[in-house]
Amino acid sequence: MAVAFPNTNKKFSEPPAAASVTALFVGFVATLPALIQTERDLCGYSGQDPAVDRWIAAADAALAQTKAACEAMIAAPAIDEAERAFQAVARLYLRVIRSEDPDEVAGLRAHVQLRRWAWLVPGDGAGARDLNIWIGAALDALETWLSLEDPFDARIEDWGGPDLDDDIGPSA
Q1: What pLDDT shows up at residue 68?
Q2: DSSP letters for the chain
Q3: What is the pLDDT of residue 46?
Q4: In which residue ranges of the chain is pLDDT below 50?
Q5: Would you put residue 121 in left (φ > 0), alpha (ψ -120 to 50) or beta?
Q6: 3-state secondary structure 105-151
Q7: What is the mean pLDDT of the chain?
Q8: According to the model, what pLDDT value does residue 124 have?
Q9: Rounded CA gap, 53 and 105, in Å?
Q10: Is the Cβ–Cβ distance between 123 and 92 less than 8 Å?
Q11: Contact yes or no for 126/139 (Cβ under 8 A)
């Protein structure tokens, strides 16, 4: 007698579950060292040497990767207070990345420095402490990234001093 073995799977496949905000946050934090290092490599660069284009491309790619990680995290549904805190940090990064106003970025930086507690997950348990370590790492990375000094920007201020003659023509 023959035994019938079905050759089709009766289980219906479910669509893949969306990545959790927590997993996306870990991926986001993993992008930050490259962002900081590539920006640090360009400190003081005035934009005059085409040989440095490779480093500029690397910095742009690192920034794009961080931005994409932030956008993915914000788009994912948050299930608890911790994930909403992670999304708040991602929104902060996106605001800094998208801002063209140095005063706005300075204000955001001061807010993070003065009110760091506002970004943390509430609670005293080990779980909250561990999550806050991740948030602290992201906020520390933001501070490091924003504090990278660009000597070229400082020289621009020196070039526009009151002792300089701003006329275009040759001196007489």
Answers
A1: 95
A2: -------S--SPPPPPPPPPHHHHHHHHHHHHHHHHHHHHHTTT--S--GGGHHHHHHHHHHHHHHHHHHHHHHHSPP-SHHHHHHHHHHHHHHHHHH---HHHHHHHHHHHHH-GGGGSPP-SSHHHHHHHHHHHHHHHHHHHHHH---HHHHHHHHHT-TTS---SSPP-
A3: 59
A4: 10-16, 151-152, 154-156, 167, 169-170, 172
A5: beta
A6: HHHHHHHHHHCHHHHCCCCCCHHHHHHHHHHHHHHHHHHHHHHCCCH
A7: 79
A8: 74
A9: 26
A10: no
A11: no
Task: Please tell me the pTM assigned to this model.
Answer: 0.72
Query: Which two three-digit tokens encode residue 66?
Result: 């961080």
| Token pair 């073995």 in the structure block, residue | 5
Q: For residue 154, which amino acid is it?
A: A
d(CA 142, CA 144): 5
Give the pLDDT score at 142. 94
* Type of residue at 34: A
pLDDT for res 73:
94
Token pair of 73 as six digits: 């995290």
How many angstroms separate the Cα of 25 from the Cα of each of 79, 84, 93, 120, 165? 14, 11, 12, 14, 52
